[in-house]
Write a structure and sequence with these properties.
178 residues; 5-stranded mixed sheet; 5 strands; 33% helix; globular
């Protein structure tokens, strides 16, 4: 039996930016939309940073494609918490994600949380911001998770990472992401 992905990828060739989440939370899986938990800062920060041209909600997640942005996760399986994911799932997800990114070749890939990039890169020591390495021609960027549970970085700090991401997308893609 084939398992249907609870939250779809929004990917296509030539995107300016792909944002990679960890995995769907339970609310996202129930709604079928990315970043559906009310306390998640993702959608407001997309607008406030200029990555989205107007305020969107999780129910409009598909609209990211209108501005050449994609969404995906490193693990498809929904869970209540990141701690519910196994190391094997993360490794397998990293390989699947690497294949997706090589196929679609976005100009910038943003990892929405350090643990995602740690799993992807296989390194524990990871810093936020633009990474020295690339995946093919894709520039890699790491920011703190937009989850409200990521209390080490408050919303204003997260907004600055989104603004830095927007500046990087503009630099690499040769124009505004909107």
């Amino acid at each position: 039996m084939t398992r249907v992905q609870a939250v779809p990828d929004y990917l296509r060739a030539g995107l300016k930016l792909v944002i990679v989440g960890l995995n769907p939370g339970i609310r996202s899986a129930e709604t079928g939309h990315h970043y559906a938990w009310p306390g998640n800062h993702f959608w407001p920060l997309m607008f406030e940073s200029g990555l989205a041209p107007e305020p969107w909600t999780y129910a409009e997640d598909r609209r990211v494609l209108e501005v050449d942005i994609g969404l995906t996760n490193i693990v498809d399986r929904p869970s209540r918490s990141a701690s519910d994911l196994t190391t094997a799932e993360m490794r397998a997800g990293a390989e699947t994600l690497r294949a997706k990114l090589r196929r679609y070749q976005p100009r910038v890939v943003c990892f929405n949380g350090k643990s995602i990039y740690q799993a992807f890169s296989g390194r524990r020591a990871v810093s936020f911001g633009r990474q020295a390495e690339r995946l093919g021609e894709s520039v890699l960027f790491v920011m703190p998770s937009t989850s409200a549970r990521a209390a080490a970085y408050q919303r204003p700090a997260k907004l600055q990472f989104f603004r830095d991401l927007k500046a990087l997308v503009d630099e690499v893609a040769g124009g505004a992401a909107t």
